[in-house]
Write a structure and sequence with these properties.
Radius of gyration: 19 Å
Bound molecules: magnesium ion
Helix content: 25-40%
Oligomer: single chain
Largest sheet: 5 strands, mixed
Number of domains: 1
Structural class: alpha+beta
Distance between the termini: 47 Å
Order of helices and strands: EEEEHHHEHEHEH
CATH superfamily: 2-C-methyl-D-erythritol 2,4-cyclodiphosphate synthase
Shape: globular
CATH architecture: 2-Layer Sandwich
CATH topology: 60s Ribosomal Protein L30, Chain: A
């Protein structure tokens, strides 16, 4: 059994008109997060964290923002699809920790609902999902209320993967190419 760690980051700009979708829940108010999907920056950061832990690509590659099929898409559904990709590799999320940096909304009253929604999508108990909120002390674009940022760290677990011979050959070929480039005048 092997444990792998991944990190994810996302930010979205506020736009007029609520509700704001964050951590899989809808927060009433007069702003939402602009984005091609529903703009759920927590779900996007968590998706990138689990994909990163699995070295299985990223959310932009799985769900292109050029594809009209993803317009307004439910980001928890995208997270579930990423969990499915991990399952296909013999890996599963084990634990997630999220920090949201925003002046508004204050997360405390929404925290438990977010943990529950993310946990269901990840196939985990809520005790394995942490959501924390920070302000940016009024500094910079977050401080001016232009948008919010999220950081996520995830661990995934699965059977230890033997290094296949073809992967070693690919790595050696790539290294040789880099070396050749470096020797160019
Ligand atoms: Mg995003």
């Amino acid at each position: 059994m092997t444990v792998r760690i991944g990190v994810g980051y996302d930010s979205h700009r506020f736009a007029p008109g609520g509700p704001l979708v964050l951590g899989g829940i809808r927060i009433p108010g007069d702003v939402h997060l602009a984005g091609h999907s529903d703009g759920d920056a927590i779900a996007h950061a968590v998706t990138d964290a689990i994909l990163g832990a699995a070295a299985a690509g990223d959310i932009g590659e799985m769900f292109s923002d050029q594809d009209p099929a993803h317009r307004g898409r439910d980001s928890l559904e995208m997270l579930r699809a990423a969990v499915g990709r991990l399952h296909g590799m013999g890996l599963a999320p084990r634990q997630v920790d999220v920090t949201v940096v925003a002046e508004q909304p204050r997360l405390a009253q929404h925290r438990e609902a977010m943990r529950a929604a993310l946990a269901v999508a990840l196939g985990l108990p809520p005790s394995a999902v942490s959501v924390k909120g920070k302000t940016n002390e009024g500094m910079g674009w977050v401080g001016r209320g232009e948008g919010l940022a999220c950081l996520a760290v995830a661990t995934v677990e699965g059977a230890a993967e033997p290094i296949a011979a073809e992967h070693v050959a690919t790595a050696q070929a790539a290294t040789a190419r880099v070396g050749a480039t470096d020797r160019r005048p």
